[in-house]
TrEMBL record:
Gene it is expressed from: glgC
UniProtKB keywords: ATP-binding, Carbohydrate metabolism, Glycogen biosynthesis, Glycogen metabolism, Nucleotide-binding, Nucleotidyltransferase, Transferase
Described purpose of this protein according to its UniProt entry: Involved in the biosynthesis of ADP-glucose, a building block required for the elongation reactions to produce glycogen. Catalyzes the reaction between ATP and alpha-D-glucose 1-phosphate (G1P) to produce pyrophosphate and ADP-Glc.
PANTHER family per UniProt: GLUCOSE-1-PHOSPHATE ADENYLYLTRANSFERASE (PTHR43523:SF2), GLUCOSE-1-PHOSPHATE ADENYLYLTRANSFERASE-RELATED (PTHR43523)
Native source organism of the sequence: Cellvibrio mixtus
Residue ranges occupied by any Nucleotidyl transferase domain in the UniProt entry: 19-282
Name of the protein: Glucose-1-phosphate adenylyltransferase
Subunit structure: Homotetramer.
Amino acid sequence: MSTQSSGRFVSRLTRETLAIILAGGRGSRLHQLTDWRAKPAVHFGGKFRIIDFPLSNCVNSGIRRISVLTQYKSHSLDRHVQRGWGFLGGELGEFVELIPAQQRLSESWYVGTADAVVQNIDIIRRHNPEYVLILAGDHVYKMDYGTMIAAHVERGADITVGCIEVPLEIAHAFGVMDVDKDFRIVKFTEKPKNPEPIHGKPDKALASMGIYVFSTKVLFRELLKDRDDPNSSHDFGKDIIPSMIKSHRVTAFPFRDPVSGGDAYWRDVGTVDSLWEANLELTGISPELDLYDAEWPIWTYQEQVAPAKFVFNDEGRRGYAVDSLIAGGCIISGSAVKHSLLFPRVRVHSFCEIEDSVLFPSVEVGRNCKIRKALIDRRCKIPDGTIIGYDQEEDRKRFHVSPKGVVLVTPDMLGQDEING
């Protein structure tokens, strides 16, 4: 089979690939943000949800057969995918299908990433793919999966693991691998207490991105073997990959920037701090993640809302925003918004100061509020005169304050009976 590509897509290989997005996780490190939604459904970037990034990468890569496996509080995630991702042509064999946890092979729910896939092995067989691309549904990045699938075929690999260099001090949160000169993986440890650095780079570790390409026959064989192992936790990183290293060809695919060849943009937005930081990075003049890139668009469900509006130009009551992203449907009424990101339908009433903050959809900020370094959840109604982000001791009495001082505010904390999604 030829693996040559003209342009961006490796079309024959991607047509023969089924993508499986693992989107069932809660994301407990996001604290109250995931009380009512799964982590992949968390809002990001002013108009998107995290799940939109792996989905968009698939479509832009030419992979048009996509299964999304859900489990934890998936209603808002299901609704978003149904509304925004129904444009593929079923008549052409293209689809984004939602597959909820159904106890298909046992009486338990998904107990690990490998278990989530093996419980749907009959569905994968029905699609009859040559290759299976397994993706985490909770990371933010742009990636052409076609080049990774091509590398998998060219190397004759049984499994290819997408990898990226991360600072050694945070590597304990990832699967860490050691590779030889041909990028064959010789060691893989899931979330090690003492991660091993890359040879020649003592401050970096080579971490798994949670992206795997399997040749389908190999995947089935390993999944069924793992299912019957009573000592397994049924996880790709903890069990499947380490067990295959000695007996199979397990290779790493370094994720690089296609233009510079250097480190590419990839974020695990799994904490309040990392989610806040990744959102506010987008307000920069030239952020690493270019949401204005017409060559690699991020698709999503597009709400029909009016343009953003800024009203009043009086001294002391001027509506404006600077170094900020303001989505459609927002009204900034006689208030100042600085270095912040506002999602659709946010309303900021007069005499407010909003700075270094992320406001999710349909937040309403009353008059005379001062908000700094905050992440405000969807549908919060901030009372008149509220001050957030200026006194951490006071903030901790009402809200969640992250290790880096980001104040997370949800409707529940405000005593409001909004069920968020």
